[in-house]
Every structure is written in C-alpha cells, then in structure tokens.
Amino acid sequence: MKDEPRPVGLSGVDRLQELVEPHLQDYITGVSEYVRGEGGLEKGQKKAAQIRLSAALGRILVVELGRIIPRLTRAHAGERKIAGALRTANADVSESDELDGLRFPLPWWEGSL
C-alpha cells in the first residue's frame, strides 16, 4: 500500500483523507479550495492535493455506484493495475473477482433504478 500524501495546508483538501465515505459536496469544497489556492503551493503540495482529491472522488464514485448497482459488492476505490488487451493500465475505481477477473455487472440497470 502506498503511503498517504503529506498534508497540503488546505483544510478542505486535507480533511478528505479522513472521510471514509466523502460526499460530493466535500469534494467540491476541497477542489474549489485547491483551485483558489494552488498558485501558492509548491510542486509537491500540488501533487499531494491532486492525489487526495482523486482518491476522494474514487471513494465517492464507489459509494454512489453501490447505491445504484447493489450487486457491485467488490468495488475498489484506489489505484489498481489492471490488464488490458494491449497493455496494463491503472484504474482509480474497479471491481474484480478472483475467478472472473475485472468485471462490471451487466445488465446493471435491471431492477436497479
């Protein structure tokens, strides 16, 4: 597991790491603060903020997809290397099964909406 990025000094961004299930408004607050304050950040702080924002958005997506697609029980938020047809890729949100590999339940819309 990768180490968490260091605090950035922007409270709306830094608090995202503490939230297990952040809401979209938490993300909007953090990203808005980042956009307003990124000019005063060093390169390492900018990267740390981007990592925190991306991780929070992935967790939000997993929670929201779980509400819409109850069968999405193995969803994972966080960078994971997956195999593609031509090369590997890093996915921020994925669902996989140890026997089936990478998957997405289809048709996910049946009885879910």
Explain how this protein is built:
- By secondary structure, the protein is an alpha+beta fold.
- The chain has one domain (11-102).
- It is built from three helices and three strands.
- The chain has helices at residues 11-14, 24-37, 43-68, and strands spanning 75-83, 88-97, 101-102.
- A three-stranded antiparallel sheet has the order 1-2-3.
- α2 (24-37) runs antiparallel to α3.
- The N and C termini lie far apart (35 Å).
- Mean pLDDT is 84; it is low at 105-113.
Topology:
Layout: H1 11-14, H2 24-37, H3 43-68, E1 75-83, E2 88-97, E3 101-102
Antiparallel strand pairs: 1-2, 2-3
Helix pairs in contact: 2-3
Task: Explain briefly what this protein structure is.
This protein has 113 residues and is of the alpha+beta class. The protein has three helices and three strands.
Features of this protein?
113 residues, three-stranded antiparallel β-sheet, 3 helices, 39% helix
* Number of separate domains: 1
Can you give the mean pLDDT?
84
Q: Structural class of the helices, strands and pairings? A: alpha+beta
**Largest sheet descriptor:** 3 strands, antiparallel
